[in-house]
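Data availability (excerpt). The following record was deposited with the supplementary files.
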Amino acid sequence: MLVINHGEGRALNAHCLVTNMSREPVHIQSVVAKVMAGGTTYTAYITDAEDIRRSGVDTGWQRMTRQGPLQPGTMADMGTFDCIIEYAEVNAIEAGEHLAEKLDSIAESIEITILGIYGSEDLLIGATRKFEVTKSASGSGIRASEALTRQITQRRERKRLLKEMNEQL
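Predicted structure:
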């Protein structure tokens, strides 16, 4: 079981955290962010931490990917929500999409999906959680849409996600 949450506040610079609540290690295979804005969904596979690489901060290879083993009871930092939204914006522009405004100013929600391998499972396991982007006079923030992370357990959905992941290779 994977839990997706936010940490270090509720502003857009809060961190997206993933915790492995299983009894066995989970190998994170892929991380997908979907940013919804103005009726359009901007999807970015953020497994390779291009946002960190672009920042110019020398962090070592461990921070250059969001892929790898996650031991039971441990947490992994997927980066800040504002950096994840920026990652989706850069992907959209590189794909030739025209954005009238910066994506962080028009984002309505962001959905994070984690795909992984667990023990002897023959299909991916996964978890997803959606966060609403809130706007106020003091700035933008995030709020979970639901209290719990949704575990992806249906075989059909797991197969579809595997197909989508294979198309991104």
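Summary of structural features: Strands lie at 2-7, 15-20, 26-37, 40-45, 68-70, 75-80, 109-118, 125-136, 139-144, 150-152.
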